[in-house]
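Example S7 (structure tokens).
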């Protein structure tokens, strides 16, 4: 699986840690930055990862800032993106099963690296359950086309 990664300065170290996890799990990590811990703006990376996922150049994405809130807001402005801020394994699993989320947003200040790695594993292995949820995702997609 191709997984696009992005983080601002607050999420830089966690992003670096997750890159090696993705490699060990057999996924291709596409690093969209930032590449240092110097102060930067989270929307730049949310838009870069969102564009990769929304256009199909990456299967999934992971975005990291201090809380994950800014990244999720910014990424969800792009067509085809369903970015979900997840703080525990249940949220990560349901974001995939029910919402077909394609970008996982994490808060580096809110999660331990070990917890973040567990969320990534759950997010990547969980499939969308379709069924009644397909209708709901279709409504979101249709709305995106009207804007």
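Recovered sequence:
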């Amino acid at each position: 699986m191709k997984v696009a990664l992005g983080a601002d300065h607050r999420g830089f170290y966690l992003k670096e840690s997750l890159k090696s996890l993705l490699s060990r799990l057999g996924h291709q990590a596409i690093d969209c930055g930032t590449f240092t811990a110097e102060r930067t703006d989270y929307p730049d990376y949310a838009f870069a990862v969102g564009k990769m996922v929304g256009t199909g150049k990456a299967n999934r994405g992971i975005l990291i800032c201090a809380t994950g809130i800014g990244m999720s807001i910014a990424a969800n402005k792009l067509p085809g993106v369903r970015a979900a801020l997840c703080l525990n394994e249940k949220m990560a699993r349901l974001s995939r099963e029910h919402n077909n989320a394609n970008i996982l947003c994490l808060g580096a200040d809110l999660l331990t690296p070990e917890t973040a790695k567990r969320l990534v594993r759950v997010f990547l292995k969980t499939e969308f359950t379709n069924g009644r949820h397909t209708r709901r995702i279709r409504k979101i997609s249709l709305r995106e086309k009207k804007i």
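Notes on this example. The chain has one domain: 2-146.
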